[in-house]
Amino acid sequence: MSKKIVISVQSINQTMRLDAFLSSLDLFSSRSQVQNLIKKSQILVNEENKKASFLVKNDDEITVMLSDDFSIIVKPEDIPLDIVYEDDDILVVNKPKNMLTHPTTKEVSGTLVNALLYKYGYDGLSNINGVLRPGIVHRLDRNTSGLLMIAKNNIAHEFLTKQIKEKTAIRKYLTIVHGNFEKEEGILDFPIGRNPNKPEKMAVVENGKPSITIYKVLENFKEYSYLELTLKTGRTHQIRVHLSHINHPVVNDSLYNKTKFKVKTTEQVLQAYALKFAVLKNNDIIELKIEPDSDIQRVLKFLRSNLK
Domain tally for the chain? Predict the structure, then answer.
């Protein structure tokens, strides 16, 4: 076995069958594919063989071991990278919309990882997260654009992961949402877990993972608001779930908001626009900020012209 995927179970609000959980992650082509890997002892839970019916829980670690002839082939691709910061250990890129952060068994081309492999190769990226996610410390949804930290080696990977875990790395987002807020600033503190009825979605659930988002209103419009958001935790779809839960869903977010906006965008109007973190070489603090992406600019132009 020369390829490995390591998955840390997080943000599930109830125990789930091992095969059902892995099938819900959009990593594998089918549930039967997962079950076949389990039968071949190529999937371990906390370093032990388990049956497909084993109930996984939060903080379990799942290791998927893949043979050389497995169908995942992640090829380097000459895709332009928008590099915002780089040193010997760390890279920050501006990921565009309509791009996966890393491949899945369903989609192995056109991702940020394909682009990273072309420029740096496997030897130039950390391997802590396995063959599908070399260098990837945190991720953005396909249609969320913005800043991502990439680790060039394992020491840098652990250094950045520690900052995220200890909340010393600051990640800020821009978004436009439905409705107006009574307070210009506030904290959204709601636990998040998988939606028990739709596993592809997350939801605010009673026994979910603690999740905190800080919001600040930048500009008000008739029936819409332009926000800056700061993540204190990093749950899957956290911003989108929190804002939908308080009836201020992100504009054009088809997964959590069925109302279409008058301006067409590439899905949800959401951008990771600012980062603050320490670098490994001298522990200096780096602060990065980029301009609002084209979707945000188009929606703001419409709102400022029509709904002030």
Answer: 3
Here the CATH number for the domain that contains residue 183 is 3.30.2350.10
Q: What are the tens digits of pLDDT across the range 2-61?
A: 567 788 786 666 678 898 888 777 566 667 878 888 998 889 999 899 999 999 988 888
CA gap 124, 53 in Å, rounded: 38
Structure tokens at 227: 């926000």
The residue from 89, 141, 253, 295 that is catalytic is 141
**Residues 189, 180: contact at Cβ < 8 Å?**
no
Nearest Cα residue to 80 out of 90, 91, 63, 94? 94
- CB-count exposure of residue 49 (10 Å: 0-12, 13-18, 19+): exposed
pTM over 0.85? The answer is no
Q: Assess whether 295 carries a catalytic annotation.
A: no
